[in-house]
Amino acid sequence: MTTSFAPLTVAIGDLVPHPANVRSNSPETYDPENIAHLKASIAVLGLLQPLLVQKLDGKYAVLAGGRRHAALKELIADKTSKGFTAKTKVDCRLVPDDCDVTTALSLAENITQAPMNAIDEFEAFARMMEVDGQTPETIAKTFGTTVAAVKGRLRYGLIHPDIRAAARGKVITLDTMKAFAEHPSQEAQREVFEALTKDGGYLQAYTVRQALKSRGVQVSDDIGAFVREDYEARGGAVAADLLDKHSVLEDAALVETILLEKLGAAAEDARMRLGFAWADAMVRYDYATMADYGRVYPGPIEPDEPAQKRIDEITAELEKLQLEMEDEGLEDGAYNALYERVDALEEEARDLQEAYSAEDLARSGVIASWQGGQITLHVGLVRPEDTVKEEGARGSSANPTGEEAPDPGEITYPSSLAEDLKTERAMALGAAMALHPEATLDVTLFKLVSDVLASGMSVTQAIKIEARKEYRSHAKMDEIDETSLEQVAAAHDVLDLSWLDDTRAPADQFAAFRALKAGEKAKLVAYATASTTQSCFARDRQRDSLMHAFEIEIMPDIRAHWTPNAALFNRFKKAWLLKILGEDLGLAQEAVTLASSSKKEIVAFCDKLFAEPFATLTDAQRAAVAAWCPPMMQTAGVAFDEAEPAAETPEPDSEVAQAA
C-alpha cells in the first residue's frame, strides 16, 4: 500500500502528529512506559519501518507511525542516547494531499503495530465511512475481518457521546458502555445514564440492561418478532440499529396491546372449536394467580359409527407405520417423519374417544399465554366462582390406539410400549444416579447454572432441569429502589466463571466446573436460582410450605434488600400516606400537620423519612420506620391473605382523619 508514496527523509524536529491519526484521542498509547520497548529497539536497530507523513502547514504530519514518532522524541530527550537530535533525519513516505484513504492507511498501520481500544476502532471506522465513503463491506475487506465485526464496532456510534466519553475517561467500563448499545435511542440512553449516575453510584452493565428493558422491546426478542409487522402497520415507533436484531420497538404498551389481541384471538378460536364457555388471554401465565382455578378433563365416550370407522382406519395405519419404523436401515429424517405421523394419528384417535361433558363445557374455558416463544393454550380451566366441589376424580383417558396383541413369538414395538420402555429406562437411570450422588449433584448443578448463565442451547436435553431467567416487567423500573439489583449484581461479580467458555465443548466446561470448590458451586446455584424466581407476594403456607419456610429463613426482613421510596408513595392516595404515618409509624402529630399539605409534599416527606430516619424520632418510631413495608411483602409478617384490605380513607374517628 505504501510503495506508491514518494520516499523522503525528514528531520525528527519537523515531524508533528497528524489530526487524522486514529490514536489522537488515546494519549495513554504514547506514555513512556507504553513505548519503552519500541524506544530501545529504535536506539539499537534504527527506524526499520518508514513513517507515513503528509504535508500540513509547513510541517510533516505523521499519519501512521505515531508510536514510533513518540519513541523518537523520547530518544531526543534522553541525554544518554547517542545519535538522536531534532536534526536527525528518518525515512518517511509522503502521502499526497488529495489522498482519500488517509484514515484507512492510519488504521491499517496502527493495527499492524499494536492493538487499539474499541472506541478508537469505532471512531476510525466511522471516519472512513463519513470522510472516505467506505462501506462496512469494504472496511472488512481492507482489514481482513468480518462485516459483522465492523458493524459491531460501528454500533458504538449509536451510544450517546457523553457515555462514550465516560468510557474513554474510565468513569465506566467498556462492558458497561456496550450495554447502552442494546437500545438504539440516544435519548433513552442519556436518560438512563443520568438516572443511574445522579447519586454518584457505580454503574454496572447489569443495571443498565435492566433499566433499558423498560424502554421498549427488541425486535430479536420472541415477542418483538411476533408483533413487529402489526406494530409497524399501526405506526409504532422503531429505534433502528445498524444491526436490525438490536432495533427496538419503543412503544411497549402498543407491543403488549397487539400481543394480547393475538393471544385473545387464539383463545377465542380454541373456545369456538372446542365448545368452551369463555376465553381469555394473559401475556405471562401466572401460576400463583391461577392456583385458585379448577380444571376439567375430557372423559371416555362411546364413539358413533363414523368415529368408530375412523378409529379402525387409524389402528390399521398405526400398525403399518410401526412395522415401517422397525426397519433398522431407516434414515433419521424418514424415521422422524413416521414418528410425527404416529403422534398425529394417536392424538386424532384420542379425540374421537374422549370429550368434555356438556356441564363442564358450560363452566370452563381456555386461556392463551405467551410461553417459550409461542402461543400456549391452557384448556379446561374453571374460574374460582364456577368451581363445583365434587367427590372423586372426573374423567379418565381411554386407550386411543385399539392395538391388538402381537402374534406369538413376534416381537413388535407399538408406540405405547415404546413410551413405557422409555419410562423404565429413565427409572433405571434414576436409580443409577441415586447410587452416585456426587456425580449426579455436579451434573445437575452444571446444567442448572449453564442454562441461566451461558448463551445458546441447553447443554443437554437428557435430564429435565429447566432454568430460565424470569421476565420481570415493571411500569416504573427506572424509579424503583435499586438495593436488590445492586446486591444481585455484586453477587454476579464474585462468581467464578472460569469454566464458562463458549469456545470449549460442554464436556470440557463440565470438567472445569466440577473442579470448582463447593462454596463456588453454591454461589453459582444461588445466583441461578435467584434469576428464576417468579413475581409474587408472600407465599401461602398451605399451598407452598417449603418456600414459605425457606423465604422466612433467608429473608426474615425484606427491608434488608428493599427500601420504600417516592416511586411507591406516589402510587398511594394521600389518605393512605397519612394513615401510614399516623397509625403504622406512630407519627400522629406529623400526619396532622401534613394533612393540609399537597400529596407531592407528603410524598417528599415520606421519601426523606425512609431514606434516612430523622434524628428527632423516638426509638419506637425509628423501629417502625426501619421495619415498615406493605404487609403482603414481608415474609415473616402478615401473610397476604390475612392482611386487611387497604382503606380508602383513614378511620373517621381518628385524629388524622379529622385533620384530613
UniProtKB/TrEMBL annotation:
Which residue spans adopt a coiled-coil conformation according to this UniProt entry?
311-362
- Give GO cellular component annotations, separated by semicolons: chromosome
**Biological process (GO), any one:** chromosome segregation
Record CDD domains: ParB_N_like (cd16406)
Give the span(s) annotated as Disordered. 388-414
Q: Which domain of life is it from?
A: Bacteria
- Keywords of this entry: Coiled coil
Q: Which SMART domains match?
A: ParB
Positions of the ParB-like N-terminal domain: 8-111
Q: What is this protein called?
A: Chromosome partitioning protein, ParB family
Native source species: Jannaschia helgolandensis
